[in-house]
Amino acid sequence: QLQLVESGGGLVQAGGSLRLSCVASGFTLDDYGIGWFRQAPGKEREGVGCLTGHTDSSYYQDSAKGRFTISRDNAKNTLYLQMNSLKPEDTAVYYCKTASGAWGQGTQVTVSS
User: Fold this and answer.
1) What is the mean pLDDT of the segment spanning 66-72?
2) Exposure string (b/e) for 23-34, b if CB count within 10 Å is 16 or more?
């Protein structure tokens, strides 16, 4: 059964850092493009960035460029989102999603000012 489980969210002060993890099971993560999305209260879900399968080319939303980094550990079948210089507007539930359409359950990130 294909499953994605996010973790690593929490409460952090503005300027701080968090690293989110997305553990995949039931499939090989490297075989798929995969991305991070987020949904803030009252707003639509939006893409943060993504990683292509095998080649690991990365793409980021403008607000994430220079602050967020997506990486993958194939041995652990895990995707990461390193978030630095966090801002209150980064507060959202963060999800990982494969190119095939599988979603995780999300992890809450709250950035206080």
Assistant:
1) 96
2) bbeebebbebbb
